[in-house]
Structure formats: C-alpha cells, structure tokens
Amino acid sequence: MSDEQNNEEVPPTEPEQGEAGEPTPAEDSEQSLADEASESNAEELLESLLSDIERNLVEEYKDRAARAEAELANFRARVERDRAANRDAVIAEVIRALLPAMDDLNRADAHGDLAGSPLELVAQKIRTGFERFGVSAVGEVGEAFDPNRHEAIAKLPTPGATSETVADVIEIGYVLGDRLLRPAKVAVAAPAE
Hints:
Blueprint: H1 3-7, H2 25-110, H3 118-132, E1 135-138, E2 150-158, E3 165-171, E4 173-176, E5 179-182, E6 184-191
Parallel strand pairs: 2-6
Antiparallel strand pairs: 1-4, 3-6, 4-5
Helix pairs in contact: 2-3
C-alpha cells in the first residue's frame, strides 16, 4: 500500500440511527408502549388505592352511623322509661295525698253515713278515678298475711289456724300497679302456740 492510500481520508459515514443514542423507530414505539403501560398501571394502582380508601371510609361512616342510631334509640328508650317512671311517681304522690280523704269516706260508708248523701257521689268518683289510674285496694279478711303488703297491728292466736291470715282490716292499703302506695294495717290470725 502506498502512502497515498493510507493517507486518503475516508469520508465519514453517517451514523445509523441508534448509534448516536437516538432511538430507532421500533425502540421509540416500544418505549412509548412501556410508558403508556407504566402510566396505565399507575392509574390503575391509584384508582385501586382510592377505591380501597373510599370503601374503608364508607364502612367507617356506616359503622359510625349505625352506632349513632343505636345510641339515639337507647336514649329515646331511656327517656321514655324515665318519663313513665316520673309519671308513675307523680300519680303515686297525688294518690297518697288523697288517701286520708278516701279513708274518711270509707269509714263513713262502713257506718252507713254516705247512703243517700251528696258525699256518696264524691266517694264513687274518687274510687272511679283510682281505678282508672290502676290503683287497687290491698288487704281483705281471709287472705294470707304478706309482710310486704300488710302491716300487722295485732297478732291474734287462733286455735285451728294453720298459717297467718288477715283476721281484720283496720286500714285499707293501696297499690299502683306493682308499687305499694301504703300497706294495709291488719290484725293477723296466727296459729295458737
């Protein structure tokens, strides 16, 4: 080879795409697809996370709403129960205030003083009012003695008696539903010792 040939300059060739770091069209489309897939996965992941958060929030708020509703129902029931108890307590106090007058009317009736008098109608109205509110008398001759409902004023030893029974009612007792307003004052017939 001659020096001329060695010294000849070789014209530079144009670099092929991709050699100088520029992507080829195939690489460019693959990169675009990868970017789109990555963006799509990120969006799906973001949507999945958001839907999980939304579901958790919805469940949390449903739970809170159910608790609040239960607390409200309990509060309403408690208020109604308290209202009924207060109503019964007020009725009981009013009835207790009327018991001395009722006792006088009962004694007058037992002596025959009410028959044909205007007080007979008053006594009947008071008894009807007591019944309307559920007030009933306690203490009848012959019933079993119950220390929860009767107050023993006297104990009468009675031959042949097998258990303690009411022998005489000195003062009628009254109950309002299950609530004892006043125990009946009674004389008790007890077995002879």
